[in-house]
C-alpha cells in the first residue's frame, strides 16, 4: 500500500509542478523521479545511474526519428506541399463536401507534421475557405482539427506514439497500420458528424490569422507533394506487409529489414524530400538546411520531455515497483487496455499535455505488459487515445483553438473539448474491438 501511495504522490506532484507551479516539464520529471527513487528505496549513489539509463534508453532510438520527422514536416510546410495537397483535395471533393476535403487534408498532412506546426499551417487554410464560401468556421474547421489530433495521438512518427512503441516494445509498422484503421472512424465521428451539432456557434476569426498563401507557381507539383509527404507511411507499410505475402531470405531479406527500420525510413524520406521539395523547387542546399535547423528548435523541448518520462520509468523499474504493480494488476477486474486508457486519460485531464500523459502512463504500464497478456501495439493505441481525453484550460491546444477562432470559453469547451473527448472514447472502443481480431 505504501508503494502505491508513493506512486500516487509522485504523479500528483508532477501534475502540480507542471500545471500549478508552471515548472518546465523536463525539470518536473527529473525532480519527481529523484524524489520517487529515494522514497522507493534506491540508494542515493545509484540514482544518477538510473537517471542516465532512463534518458539513454528512451532517447537512444527516438532522437533520430523525432528529429528527422520534424525536419520533413517543416519542409512539407515551408515548400507549399501542404497547401498544394489542400487545393487538390478541395477540387476533388467540391464545395458541397468541404468538411470532408479539409478532414482528409488534415489527416494526410498531419502524418508528417507535428501537431503545433500542423495547427498553425492548417487553420489559416480553414479560414480561407470560411471567408470564400461564407460558412461557419467551427462547423467547417473542426473535422480537420480532429484529424490532426488523431494523427498526433495515434500515429508514428509523432513523438508520443513513437516513444510508446519503444517503451512498450511494440512494432512500429503494425502500430501504424492499426492506428490508421482506428483513426478513420474516430475522425469521422468526431469530425463531420459531431460538427453538425455546432452550426449555431458563431465565430469570427481574427484578421491576424488570415492566411498568407504561397503563389501557385512557387508550389511543388501534386504528385511530388503527396508522394513526398506520405513517403514514410508508404515505406513503413510496404516493408511491414512484404513478410506476410512472400518469404524472403539472404540479401533481399536483409535489404527489407534494413529499409523497414524507422530510422532508415525517416532518413530515406528526408533525403528524398531534400531534393524533391528543396533543390528541385529552386531552393539552395543552405536554405533547406536552415529549414531543418529551425525544425530541430521546434522539437527540442519535446525531446527533453520524452527523456524526463524515461527517467521516471527507469526509477519505477529499478526500485522494483514494476513487479509490485504487476502482482496487483493481476487481481484487478479491469481490462488492461481500459486500464491504460484510464491512466493516460486521468493524467491528461490533470496535466493538459497529451505527450506527458501518454509517456507517464507508459512508464507505469510498460513494465507489466508481459504479465497482462495484451497486444503491445493495441496498448500503444489505447494509451494514445486516453492521452487525448477532454482537453481544457490547462492545455495549450485549447487556448490556440480559442484564440484563433475567437470563441468564448463556453463555446470552446462545447466544440474543442468535446471533440477531443469523442476522439478519445472512439479510440478506446476501436481498440477493444480490434482486440478480438489481432
TrEMBL record:
It comes from the Bacteria. The chain crosses the membrane at residues 27-47, 59-77, 97-130, 137-155, 175-195, 226-246, 258-279, 299-317, 337-362, 413-437. It is a multi-pass membrane protein. GO terms for cellular component: plasma membrane. InterPro entries: Glcn_transporter (IPR003474). It is found in: Cell membrane. Its main location: membrane. Keywords: Cell membrane, Membrane, Transmembrane, Transmembrane helix, Transport. One of its GO terms (molecular function) is gluconate transmembrane transporter activity. PANTHER family: GNT FAMILY GLUCONATE TRANSPORTER, HIGH-AFFINITY GLUCONATE TRANSPORTER. Belongs to the GntP permease family. This is Gluconate transporter.
